Structures are given as C-alpha cells and as structure tokens.
C-alpha cells in the first residue's frame, strides 16, 4: 500500500505511517545531526528541517526499507546545505582529495595495540567523544555512521553518497586517528609512564 | 569450492592483521571470515591485536546512547510537523 501526502488533503494512513515509522528516529537523527554540526543550536535547526522535508517527501519513502537510513540521508543533505549557505563552500569539498589520499595511504599494520595497556586505563567514553568531535568531518561522518550508529559499509555509503571503498578508507583512517588521540590522551594523563614501568 | 579452502589455509599473520577491522565489521566473504576466525583461535601473536581492536570498537559503539534529543527539539519538530499537516 502506498499512501501519498503530496495532495492537498493529507492521507491519514500515510500520516499515521510517518508517525509510527519516522518519528521514533528523532533521537538518532538528532545525534547524527549533532555529530556533524557539533553545535546544539545548529543540530536543532538541522533536525527540524530534516523532519519537515521527510514529511513532505514521505511519499518517496519505500515502505519496508530502512527508515533511519532514509532520514539520515535527508539529514546529511540538510547539513551540507546549511554549511554551504554559511561558508559558500563546504569544508568537506576543499581538501577532500588530499584527505582521501591520506586515507588510502594509511594501510600500515597497526602498532597502536602496543598501547593497549595504556588505553585500558583511560576512561574511554569521554576521551573518545572528544576525539570524535575533533576528527576532520570526512572521517567523522564515516566513524559515526558505522561505529556509533552501527551501519554496514554499504548503508553508510548510501547516506554519504560515496562508494563503499571510500567509506572503508575514511573509516579506517578515522579509527586510526582516534586511537592516536587516545594514546596522546593517555600520555597527557600520565598513564604511559605507569605502563612502561610494568613492562 | 575446494580451491577456496586451500587459499584460506594460507592466510598469514600479516593478512589477518590487515583485515582485522573488516573482520570485526563482518564485511568479508564467509570464507575469509572463517579463515580469520580459525587463525585467531590459534595465533598468540594476532589475538591480542584482535582483542584490542574489539575493545576499541566496543568503546566507540558505547558512546552512542549519550545524546537523546532534548525535549525542546522534540517539541519544535512536532510543532513544525503539525503546521505542515501532521496530526500528532
Ligand atoms: Zn597470527
């Protein structure tokens, strides 16, 4: 059954479906918006615009498909437009090629695990949240979608409108940057010294 | 498909470590998943690295719950939708 709300008289069934299928993702959309904007007031605007657009284009949503992914895609586009409006040029575009090259060059086998004992002493939650916030946007969005929101690579690729291979390289580079940030965090907290005493 | 089995047996530590994240994300073929699982079960060198990456990814996933949408945002969204015709 396909309900449409594009006509002047809203279809009650479609409206009801929107309420039941789309609205419950409000927290998720807010969290995703906040991860991109890193500003509560901007996230607020992005979320409102996302749900308004979603409601208006609800007839394009395929019943049975992943509603969260659909909403995230809209949310991402709203965010990019907001950015564009603010800066005329999205920071996402400028050094994109450079960042992408960096990401694919990053195939070295990790030595970060040597710091595993250090990381086990760091209160990972707050340290990670801060480190995620400091990631360049291209890496942050991949990490948030896959690692925080639990999406598969192909779902994240669809939300961000990039090939799966791009998600993979952004994700891996983002994770490595997070691990490096955690090691530095541990070092600043004086944990490295303790760790090396035990070696 | 016996050829695949022969190939997977040949997976060494370098291959395993290189694909740890793909493995943890469940993004490999069934054959590769099996080969890595088997390798990790018996390799003392790779297992700590695997364990570290798993802990790291679990910690990342655990950051998820901490930002419910503020009530104010929820109210604004609902108000906007009502204005657009949603009956909530
Ligand atoms: Zn090994």
Which properties best describe this structure?
heterodimer; A: 199 residues; mainly alpha; Rna Polymerase Sigma Factor, Chain: A; Arc Repressor Mutant, subunit A; 12 helices; 0% strand; disordered N terminus; disordered C terminus; B: 88 residues; 6 helices; elongated; binds zinc ion
What does this structure look like?
The complex is a heterodimer of chains A (199) and B (88). Chain A is mostly helical and 199 residues long. Chain A has helices at 12-22, 26-37, 40-56, 67-87, 91-94, 96-105, 116-119, 124-134, 137-148, 153-160, 164-188, 191-198. The longest helix of chain A is centred in the C-terminal third of the chain and has 25 residues, at 164-188. The radius of gyration of chain A is 20 Å and the shape is elongated. Chain B has 88 residues and is mostly helical. Chain B has one domain. Chain B has 6 helices and no strands. In chain B, helix 1 (2-9) packs parallel to helix 4 (30-42). The longest helix of chain B is centred in the middle third of the chain and has 16 residues, at 46-61. The chains are: A mainly alpha (199), B mainly alpha (88). The interface between A and B is large, with 49 and 39 residues. Bound molecules: zinc ion (ZN).
Question: Outline of this structure?
Answer:
Chain A has 199 residues and is mostly helical. Chain A has helices at residues 12-22, 26-37, 40-56, 67-87, 91-94, 96-105, 116-119, 124-134, 137-148, 153-160, 164-188, 191-198.
């Amino acid at each position: 059954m396909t309900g449409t709300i594009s006509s002047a008289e809203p279809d009650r069934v479609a409206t009801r479906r929107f309420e039941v299928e789309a609205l419950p993702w409000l927290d998720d959309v807010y969290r995703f918006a906040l991860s991109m904007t890193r500003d509560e007031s901007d996230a607020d605007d992005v979320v409102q615009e996302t749900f308004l657009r979603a409601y208006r284009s609800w007839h394009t949503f395929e019943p049975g498909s992943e509603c969260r992914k659909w909403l995230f895609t809209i949310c991402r586009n709203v965010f990019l437009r907001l950015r564009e409006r603010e800066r005329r040029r999205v920071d996402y575009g400028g050094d994109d090629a450079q960042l992408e090259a960096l990401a694919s060059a990053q195939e070295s086998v990790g030595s970060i695990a040597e710091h595993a004992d250090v990381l086990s002493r760091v209160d990972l939650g707050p340290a990670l949240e801060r480190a995620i916030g400091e990631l360049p946007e291209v890496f942050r969005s991949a990490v948030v979608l896959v690692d925080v929101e639990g999406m598969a690579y192909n779902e994240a690729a669809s939300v961000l409108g990039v090939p799966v291979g791009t998600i993979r390289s952004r994700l891996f580079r983002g994770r490595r940057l997070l691990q490096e940030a955690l090691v530095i965090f541990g070092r600043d907290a004086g944990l490295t010294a303790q760790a090396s005493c035990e070696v | 498909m016996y050829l695949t089995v022969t190939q997977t047996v040949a997976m060494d530590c370098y291959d395993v470590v290189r694909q740890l994240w793909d493995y943890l994300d469940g993004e490999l073929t069934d054959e590769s998943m099996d080969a890595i699982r088997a390798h990790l079960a018996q390799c003392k060198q790779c297992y700590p690295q695997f364990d570290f990456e798993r802990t790291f990814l679990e910690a990342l996933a655990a950051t998820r719950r901490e930002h419910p949408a503020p009530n104010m945002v929820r109210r604004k969204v609902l108000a906007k939708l009502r204005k657009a015709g949603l009956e909530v």
